[in-house]
Amino acid sequence: MSEPVPAEESVVPRPGLSRRGLLGLLGAGAGGLVVGGLGGAAIGAAVATANAADATGVVHPFFGTHQAGIATPVQANLHFAAFDMADDATRDDLISLLKDWSYAASRMTQGLDVSATGAVGGSPDAPPDDTGEALGLPASALTITFGLGPDLFEKNGVDRFGIAARRPDALKLLPRFVGDALDPAASGGELCVQACADDPQVAVHAIRNLSRIAFGRAQIRWSKLGFGRTSKTSSDQLTPRNLFGYKDGTANILGDDERALDEQVWAAGPSWLAGGSYLVVRTIRQKIEPWDRQQLTEQDRIIGRSKGEGAPLSGGTEFTEPDFAKKDAAGQPAIDMHAHVRLAHPDFNHGIRLLRRGYNFVDGNDPLGSLNAGLFFLSYQSDPQRFVTIQRALRSDLLNEYIQHTGSAVFAIPPGAKQGSYVGAGLFA
Amino acid sequence: MSEPVPAEESVVPRPGLSRRGLLGLLGAGAGGLVVGGLGGAAIGAAVATANAADATGVVHPFFGTHQAGIATPVQANLHFAAFDMADDATRDDLISLLKDWSYAASRMTQGLDVSATGAVGGSPDAPPDDTGEALGLPASALTITFGLGPDLFEKNGVDRFGIAARRPDALKLLPRFVGDALDPAASGGELCVQACADDPQVAVHAIRNLSRIAFGRAQIRWSKLGFGRTSKTSSDQLTPRNLFGYKDGTANILGDDERALDEQVWAAGPSWLAGGSYLVVRTIRQKIEPWDRQQLTEQDRIIGRSKGEGAPLSGGTEFTEPDFAKKDAAGQPAIDMHAHVRLAHPDFNHGIRLLRRGYNFVDGNDPLGSLNAGLFFLSYQSDPQRFVTIQRALRSDLLNEYIQHTGSAVFAIPPGAKQGSYVGAGLFA
Ligand code: HEM
Ligand code: HEM
After folding, report:
1. Inter-chain contact B228–A201, Cβ cutoff 8 Å?
2. ipTM of the assembly?
């Protein structure tokens, strides 16, 4: 297991902040290498499990060139939260928050408690640093990915954190698209945290503890749980299915396709963002009942692929390239001119591809008994304008009758933190 | 794999019902033994996976003495839905719905599509029988457990389905408890379906398809997703943790404890219910932020057990019996008189134990940024009055400052269906 604790200089305590602001110190104060994270003598079993990268416990390094959670294999579960800074938060608050978050993330992704004293190792007369619900659970491939929204740089013309001049031109609100029915309370956000893990309890634990660490500096604006990844980023993964029953992720950019990642996903600049990316988030409600009443051929026509195999309607198997020129027996295009995969295909979009990393969601039901279900669409690209190009191309998508975009957000995703530093450090250099 | 298709007589088509009402026929029409459930030749891989009880694919029999999903090992994920019958539904509708549901459940729990033609094997000019999002996924230990609420038997004094006389006295609305803040829209229900699986996509697929089958006869009243089981019913399972960070399920009734099941869980009668049980459902919001601000000793005192090990505060390890007479150094009871585990303990409740089978939930956040988190409490007992006794004993529970009950429901859980019959058949005999 890699050494999770940042070097001392990155976690200097910032007097005047809440106790939570000192979290970083708790770890570094122990002298650098902290492997246990659990103080109680009686909980040996939990320590053994939490620290072992066992069969269910894939561990992703936190520090590196890129943040984990983009090109790394998509996990089974998601908890996503968008945050807004407190009204009176200062530049120092923002910096200390990013440091504390990186510190906590560098530990939790390794299967450790949020700090060295953790859930039960601190003073019995103090609230525990860690909320404890992941005690004994393996890392479960947890990745924690941080992003910065446009409003963080400048809001209502005010440069609250002295970073307005560093906002990349590309980072701005997405334009309004035809058919958008966006809920402002479930859109936007000044910061975001994407926590993905193979165990939902581990993802929830991460968001909850990061939210707690943010107390007084930032608070959750909106949040979402997702399951059944609707994409894949590794050729080892079976293609999952979305809630319309179709394989999703077939033509996705894979995490080991360095060339596609360099051309399509990693941002070139500005310097503080080089090696980072942009995340576009769209909450898309799927109208499953009307969809379910469509005949199979119609469903296939709308997507442009077959339901069972996921093959393009021009023929072949799942990974055969679609042949958009191919005609069917009646002389019509085998793949409809307005099929989803045709309109979204790079051939008709200047070669643009997105790295999709979405999840299914079901949030209860509406008063008529329909499940409130849909796709929590997440895509990473080197410029949000690439998403805009595809989304505009989907204007005449046959799918539009069955979906509705209800939430939207965009974030700059800084590159990975160097060992001993924190995500976003370059912005303040 | 056991043979999932009920004998022909139980699935006679009922003319005049919606197409969904004929689902049963689709399976039996194929001549009894249907093992594939997937018609397309191109989807061999999906068939191979769906039908294999592989490492991740534990398969529970649907037919048997008791319904699965009570004493069987608790799975990782839950989708629960309460249904109400349509205003104009008849007795025949209710019977055909229970038959169709049993038929579909007998297939889905085996890793099969909802009918023999399934997601892609029917006529391409018809809507598929199965919505498809679980195509290729293993059974994932799916259990589907059906229940009948008090209002099904008689509502506003009307005996809609001719079963009022068969309502057990024990099946009635729970009394109001001190502190209840119940949302009627998230309480009650004439029918319920508890779908548990080790893959959330499989549980969601089950509820969605059962809801679809119910179309025109019943519709979802309220529903809930849960994760991170907060209980255990097998000694093989590690004790999970709830969102207060404590081990939950330590003293639970285990699924192989035949004696405790017979004494505490299985209902003796009336005859149509013998071998069944009663399910009490309580949605309990946990106020995680105030909880997280409590010191560790105070949290331990409230629960009556230690956070790390889960041992009673009277000493020992997780499975040591609590000693409520034990005093601490200051001469006070080592386990507080109002600690949760003391008040809930059988010693002070006429020996009553519950089989708990709850799940954690997180449903987004409130406008102040707090996660809307809690415990979806499910308990099975031979009489709901047993739950009432414990819940009343919890009136002075120290935990009450940190929780609020927001939903409530009670259901009679019929015994398991005999091979070739359906759940609830005894009610109409
Ligand atoms: C609920 C909404 C959506 C559903 C159900 C859906 C479904 C699908 C399916 C089944 C495929 C084919 C398999 C694959 O290659 O992944 C696909 C491909 C694709 N989708 Fe979507 N999609 C949705 C929304 C979007 C949105 C909002 C975008 C971007 C604006 C998008 C962009 C793409 C792209 C780029 C491809 C790959 C096309 C190719 O290269 O062949 N999708 N989608
Ligand atoms: C959010 C609310 C609740 C929380 C956080 C909670 C937590 C716990 C914990 C940590 C334990 C000790 C470990 C164990 O034996 O499982 C426990 C035990 C128990 N709880 Fe709860 N509980 C809650 C609500 C309830 C409710 C509503 C009831 C029933 C009315 C209940 C009944 C019991 C019982 C019967 C035991 C076992 C007592 C024994 O035999 O030692 N709990 N609970």
Report:
1. yes
2. 0.88
